[in-house]
UniProtKB/TrEMBL annotation:
The keyword Transcription regulation does not apply. InterPro entries: Amidohydro-rel, Hydantoinase/dihydroPyrase, Metal-dep_hydrolase_composite, Metal_Hydrolase, Metallo-dep_Hydrolases_sf. Keywords: Hydrolase, Metal-binding. GO terms for molecular function: dihydropyrimidinase activity; metal ion binding. Residues 49-432 form the Amidohydrolase-related domain. Its EC number is 3.5.2.2. The gene is hydA. Carbamylation allows a single lysine to coordinate two divalent metal cations. This is Dihydropyrimidinase. Transmembrane segments: none annotated. The keyword Ribosomal protein does not apply.
Amino acid sequence: MSLLIKNGTIVTASNEFVGDVYVKGEKIEAIGIDLNMPADQVIDATGKYVFPGGVDEHVHYGSFGALLFETSHAAGVGGTTTIVDFAPQDQGVPLLEAIRIQASKANNVASVDYAFHGIIMDPKDSVFDEIEHLPEVGVSSLKLFMAYKGTSFYSDDESILKAMMKAKDVGVTMMVHAENADIINVLQKYYLDQGKTDPVYHYYSRPPIAEEEATNRAIALAKVADCPLFIVHVSVKGAMEAIRSAYEGGFPVYGETCTHYLTLTTDYLAKPNFEGAKYVCSPPLRPQEHLDALWEAVQKGWLVSVGSDHCALVGGYEITKKKGLGNFAKIPNGCPGVQDRMVMLWTYGVCEGKITRQRFVDLFATTPARVVGLYPQKGQIAVGSDADIVIFDPNFKGTITNAESYHGIDYSPFEGFPIKGRPEQVFLRGKLIAKEGKFVAEKGKGRRLTCKPYALCYTYYHKDDK
């Protein structure tokens, strides 16, 4: 099968021009002006933008009580054609086996292409010894949590440092969730003892300093290990500034933020009648001053990507109320966001003049692909790359509603948000999977991808120099 997209405004992370894209099979075969080769399908994209399919390097399918890959077609509808999931590790299960188990859950179920990060949840020497084998199974990144003390997700500084020292030798990108677990534990008890149980106290028990301190500590550990570092879901100005300072000082520290940290404030957690529970995620939503700082950071490159941190909790709002009513510390964490990432970033970034179209593509597709070692196969419109293409209609106007969402639960954190523009047609490896907000392909046709080590965070480091 062949496809010719004509007269669209092709936008990459570094360029923008009106032209044509020719697809043969699953790959982009030609890009130019007035291409006239025969094609099975010709699409006139006049007045539309042509973007690479989005790469969301931060999703949760199955961990934290989230739905599995049966709802991953939500990503495709929203213009994301590649997701990178975190594979949780149960106690006693080897790290590589945990990844194999998670991959088996996606096989013939995921509707977009997918890859994995490892997570260490059983920190012991045998697990650290497995890190060198991650690239052999197509995994080039590894995450540890500094938060959630008292659960299997938590890792202490010793475990993080050991993992970093192993990861740097094989080009595995180290990722951390940076929040000070002890501050959180003390403040949770403090507020609960005062009878302050509403969802907004999720924010007060996880103040900005808890994230800022942990970010600085993670950077210090990375410097000890001489290991590049990627800080996930940055939500506060101080953490962003710590990342910026380390990078500008010559050390390879990078960070992402997420759609909700750019568009939702702490006020949503304070909604009455327990409605604020729908907005509980960690780190928590922040006051406006932090949103303003994060927009500046993504515009200037101090933060390099915008993920969704998608986590559609099984049972949705009903299970959230059942578990968390009367105790904010027990509210399940997670917001479904994979479908709305593109339109929210476009509407509240590009349309409001906070980022350019090229920066939008970089944040949404190109740099996420580079971070996880999938570039240039994914994340760009270029000859030889996978034909993951979004034809985007900038003239569409609408409103986000859960009724039109595919994430599989009963609420959306972006309910009622006006949007400008949407993916009109989405192609995965040359095949149409979504059109005008609807999934139109056969489900379960996503393909597992192999991530390459020594990815973006190793910019300052080269294997031959070791």
